[in-house]
Amino acid sequence: TQLLEQSPQFLSIQEGENLTVYCNSSSVFSSLQWYRQEPGEGPVLLVTVVTGGEVKKLKRLTFQFGDARKDSSLHITAAQPGDTGLYLCAGGVQKAAGNKLTFGGGTRVLVKP
Amino acid sequence: DAGITQSPRYKITETGRQVTLMCHQTWSHSYMFWYRQDLGHGLRLIYYSAAADITDKGEVPDGYVVSRSKTENFPLTLESATRSQTSVYFCASSEFGLLVPGEAFFGQGTRLTVV
Question: For residues B38 and B78, what is the distance between their CA atoms, to the nearest angstrom?
């Protein structure tokens, strides 16, 4: 089982529609990151949220960190085909040997023209 | 060129053989990570390293060995490859603040097939 659970696993929508992706955990994280991955490439960072209740906007993307810092959401307004990809949330877990960056299972988003 | 590079990009090996995947970064990031990504799924952490000579297990370490004698290199070795280790392997590097991870930069991935 993964520390970070993402839902839904797959989302198919028409261009212009809105969508929300969720990232949930039973653990508290000091921060959460969102990445997007396109086929054949490594993930690329979209945003890092640090403070409980924080909301960050990146053009049509809105990221929210839950008040208790256990969950996060990514909302895309008026989705475009260029938003198609695998969206991954990630959190740092502090261990004796350092911090390990662990990822959720991902949400695959398909935006059809 | 600056960045993080993985080699080889593609590898086919036989069951039982030892294979090493290479990862090299030029930023002098203290942290490096190895993940595997199976078809249609997220990334699962195999091993990570906070600095040279400091490594620790991730979620799925069995069957893998790592070393980090130099900050810039973090090779991953499959001691005796099995079909279940067929996957795409990603290496990443990052810096961590006190509690907040910096951006993780990923290599292009190595597609490994074990036959």
Answer: 16
| B108 neighbourhood in chain A, CB within 8 Å | 40-42
* CA atoms within 13 Å, Cβ hemisphere of A104: 32
User: Of the candidates B35, B54, B15, B48, which has an alpha carbon nearest to the alpha carbon of residue B107?
Assistant: B35
In angstroms, the Cα distances linking A4 to A40, A76, A92, B111 are 23, 20, 11, 25
Which among B4, B23, B43 is the top mutation candidate for probing chain A, defined by the most A β-carbons within 10 Å of its own β-carbon? B43
CB contact under 8 A, A99 and B50: yes
Cβ–Cβ under 8 Å, residues B31 and B96 = yes
Residue A106 contacts residue A39 (beta carbons within 8 Å) = no
- Report the pLDDT value the prediction gives residue B99, as an integer from 0 to 100: 61
Coil, strand, or helix at residue A58? strand
The predicted-structure confidence for A72-109, as pLDDT tens digits, reads as follows: 999 999 999 999 999 999 988 777 777 788 899 999 99
Encode pLDDT of B84-109 as tens digits: 999 999 999 998 765 667 888 999 99
Distance separating alpha carbons of residues A97 and A109, to the nearest angstrom: 35
Say how many C-beta atoms besides its own lie within 10 A of residue B101's C-beta. Answer: 24
Q: List beta partners, residue A63.
A: A56, A74
